[in-house]
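Bug #2210: token dump truncated for TetR/AcrR family transcriptional regulator?
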Amino acid sequence: MELTDTQRRILEVGKQEFLEKGFKDASLRAIVKEAGFTQGAFYGYYDSKEALFDALVSPAADGLLNQFIQAQQAHYKLIPEDKTEQCQDLSTSYLNYFINYIYDHFDAFKLVTCCSEGTRYASYVHELVELEVDQTKDYHQQLCQLGKLKGTVSRNLYHMITSAYFTAVFETVAHDMTREQAIDYVNELAVFFNCGWNGLLRFK
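Reproduced locally. Full output below:
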């Protein structure tokens, strides 16, 4: 459904208020006043401050989550095709796709990364980590059963490594890197973590 001019104005003013003050300290009264509308006009579109934040964030955040799930499924497809040696190259390829997606929706992910305390998105990165840990652990167990790797890693270590990795990726947004800087950074990051996984898991 196409947005009205009033709705666009509310979203733009709300975004700036959230970016400047964070969700918890942002004022709905200030948003309405700056937008130049009544609270009644606001409630005609959003029933709360959180609903406004969700409208600004959810399309991009949910889109990244869905693509992340698709990336995990793509890794499983390597197993029956006997192409599991390509898994790290595939991961790096998807990482580049993800970082470009994040930068295509930079303000939304800035809100998620730096301004979401008090909303359901405060745990967004943690939820990605948990999803990745569960799937990666299962994927590596399947590779181990096929004789594709020798090493083992505890779930606690999986979680700590994955949490460090995702935190590092989203630091691009927290530190306002340019897209070009972010792409260079995450590719160096991929090399670093791939070397670590290779050392621990001893891929064949």
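Output looks complete on our side. The two ends are 51 Å apart (CA to CA). Marking as cannot-reproduce; reopen if the truncation happens again.
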